[in-house]
Design a protein that fits this description.
alpha+beta; Beta-Lactamase; 5 domains; six-stranded antiparallel β-sheet; about 25% strand; transferase; histidine phosphotransfer kinase activity; PAS-like_dom_sf; EC 2.7.13.3
Length: about 675
């Protein structure tokens, strides 16, 4: 601080010090006394830790201490003689002059800043919050005011932080109060200190009613382990969680999932316990019901498994495109000659064990043509499919395979977890049944041998009868010897037609026996399927006036390497059936198109006849199988035509199937591999 003898304070240069009457040159003694007083006051100001300033009644700065100079960043000479407003922001200076003048009129000790936002301005222009204490003093009988200026930046920051903490606490308290869980705080003696709305909702007591009461007594707490064990865990680890049983105000009992935390004071002594209880009564009830349902389902599955294990057929439940095994019966291992592990894809199992599958013609079955894969992809049953199995020991086993997909997938999530390891429940499930038909094959072999023998023996007498009937008709037509009357000619004509029908049946039977004996061969050659189809339709159209046969072929030519006679036989059988089983007449549509992606010729033959009963559709391609409604209608047939059609198409590498609705009609469709015509 500057010495009061500073020339700036000399009356000849300064003129006035206190803002009162100016000191006259002849008042030397008074000036000396005033300066001495200022000098003493200045010494005291520098001893204060606060920033101090002295102003006269006009607001002119008379004294400042070092702390104030440092606070505002001014030098001593820059402040002495300036008005107090130089330490304020410019926008507050005009208003401050009025307030200062009003205060000087009745100066008194006063703290300025409590509840106000007072701001100081440093020399560099920065601003900071301040608190000012004012006290009037007299220096040589002249009124002055001394002000203590305190920088309250840190205090304001502390206050703001306190307000933030208080706001967070309020929010936390609100969240705790609104939490669905029951949250309570109890002291070391288990007396309740805090009780949120969740606790009120769960236990039916208000916070006012329970405060100060012992929680375990109030709630009649039942521990699944002892209370001593819970207290010991809290003491050792500071927390505990488990299940408790509490009794509510209305006497009902609830099961709660409880989490408890021990809070200690600064000396480490237990001071409170925070307890969060979640009502799991309904969850435990549902879990109990689920356990009962699971036990019941396990018992049912055990009975089902026992039944399946007693069946002679191999039964499999598979899931997804890879045909992963879910369950199988005891006969399954005997069927394959190896154990199929649960969860393993069928293709992987067959390859690992060296098991091979063959179709009815003895050709290797592609993995994508497995019976289960067909049903899995289409969602439709695949029934009565004849296959052969070559087991790891080299033995062969003929089987008939049925695959039935589950259309209601809600069954799958109810299966035990161990049956569905890591398998998506959205995948389709298929039941596959393999029936060992070795005994049936042996019986069929004997039957085929008999049929073969019988048909061979029938051919000669049939040829003789047909020949003589033909000669009689020819001689009668020429008028030689005795003629035949009309009745005789009709009977001979019927005899000839019956002999040729019997001969056709004999040829069909011979074809069947050759196929069963593996002696059937195809004579393939490049054939235009469009031209072949038109010829067959033209020939059969001449046999009926009630039906209109129409062909729609997208390509003008469609070439395939086939046995022309056998494909003509397939078309004739299917079209003859369409005519025969549509006794009321009507259109018969034949559609032929080429599928570019698979290089297939696709045939579709549709009629509007009597249709096939759904219950008999699965076995329609079997030997000697006929629909019951056809029998009832008196329509004659052998039941060999569709069997031969299937065999002939599959031996060409194609596929045949149908769709039918009784009383509406049937659509048969088959495919054949095709190719571009050979250059001529």
């Amino acid at each position: 601080m500057k010495n009061p003898q500073d020339p700036n304070l000399h009356p000849e240069k300064q003129g006035a010090m206190s803002g009162e009457l100016p000191i006259q040159p002849d008042s030397t003694a008074l000036m000396v006394s005033f300066l001495l007083t200022l000098n003493i006051l200045a010494a005291f100001l520098d001893l204060s830790p606060d920033a101090l300033i002295v102003v006269d009644t006009t607001g002119m700065i008379v004294l400042v201490n070092t702390q104030l100079e440092m606070l505002f960043g001014y030098g001593h000479d820059e402040l002495i003689g300036q008005t107090i407003e130089c330490l304020l922001p410019e926008h507050l200076r005009a208003a401050h002059v009025a307030k200062r003048t009003h205060y000087m009129q009745a100066a008194r000790p006063r703290l300025i800043g409590a509840g106000l936002d007072l701001v100081g301005r440093r020399k560099d222009g920065s601003q900071f919050p301040v608190e000012i204490s004012l006290r009037p003093i007299r220096i040589e009988h002249t009124l002055h005011v001394m002000g203590a200026v305190r920088d309250i930046t840190a205090q304001r920051e502390v206050e703001r932080e306190r307000m933030r903490i208080l706001q967070r606490l309020r929010q936390q308290d609100k969240l705790i109060s609104l939490a669905h869980d029951a949250i309570l705080v109890r002291d070391a003696e288990n007396r309740i200190l805090s009780w949120n709305e969740g606790a009120e909702h769960l236990y039916r007591w208000t916070a006012q009613e329970v405060t100060g009461k012992v929680s375990h007594t109030l709630l009649q707490t039942r521990f699944l382990i002892s209370q001593e064990a819970v207290d010991q865990t809290l003491e050792q680890h500071g927390q505990w969680q488990g299940e408790l049983i509490h009794t509510c105000r209305d006497g009902t009992q609830v099961i709660v999932e409880s989490r408890q935390v021990l809070v200690r004071d600064e000396q480490g002594a237990p001071s409170a316990i925070l307890e969060i209880n979640r009502d799991v009564t309904e969850r435990r009830r549902l879990e109990h019901l689920e356990q009962e349902a699971r036990a019941d389902m396990d018992a049912r599955l055990h009975v089902l498994q026992s039944i399946l294990d007693r069946l002679p057929n191999g039964v499999f439940l598979v899931q997804g495109p890879q045909l992963r095994l879910l369950m199988a019966n005891d006969a399954a291992a005997a069927l394959w000659g190896a154990e199929w592990p649960r969860g393993q894809p069928q293709e992987e199992f067959l390859q690992q064990q060296g098991i091979h599958l063959f179709n009815a013609n003895g050709q290797p079955l592609p993995m994508d043509d497995l019976t289960g894969a067909r049903a899995m992809a289409s969602g439709e049953p695949v029934l009565y499919r004849q296959l052969g199995i070559r087991r790891p020991d080299g033995t062969r086993l003929p089987v008939v395979v049925d695959a039935i997909p589950f259309t209601n997938l809600s069954l799958l999530p109810r299966l035990p977890q161990e049956m569905t390891p890591a398998l998506p429940s959205a995948e389709r499930v298929v039941l596959v049944v393999y029936q060992d038909v070795s005994a049936l094959k042996e019986a069929e072999t004997l039957k085929d041998q008999f049929i073969s023998l019988a048909t061979h023996e029938l051919r000669t007498p049939l040829t003789i009868v047909a020949g003589y009937a033909d000669r009689l008709l020819i001689r009668a037509a020429r008028g030689k010897e005795h003629g035949l009357d009309e009745w005789q000619r009709e009977k001979v004509q019927e005899m000839k037609q019956a002999s040729w029908q019997l001969a056709s049946l004999t040829e069909d039977l011979l074809d069947v026996t050759r196929m069963q004996a593996g002696q059937f061969a195809l004579e393939r050659r490049s054939t235009d399927l469009v031209d072949l189809t038109r010829k067959v339709i033209q020939r059969l159209q001449a046999t009926t006036d009630k039906h209109q046969l129409d062909v729609q072929a997208a390509p003008p030519q469609l070439w395939a390497t086939v046995d022309t006679f056998r494909i003509e036989q397939v078309l004739s059988n299917l079209l003859s059936n369409a005519i025969k089983y549509s006794p009321g007449g009507g259109p018969i549509e034949v559609m032929l198109e080429e599928h570019a992606e698979t290089h297939e010729a696709r045939f579709r033959i549709r009629d509007q006849g009597m249709g096939i009963p759904r219950a008999q559709q699965a076995h329609l391609f079997g030997r000697f199988v006929r629909a019951e409604n056809a029998r009832a209608a008196g329509i004659r047939g052998t039941g060999l035509g569709l069997y031969l059609c299937r065999e002939l198409i599959e031996r060409h590498g194609g596929h045949i199937d149908f769709e039918s609705e009784e009383g509406v009609g049937s659509t048969f469709f088959f495919s054949l591999p095709c190719h571009e015509p050979a250059p001529r």
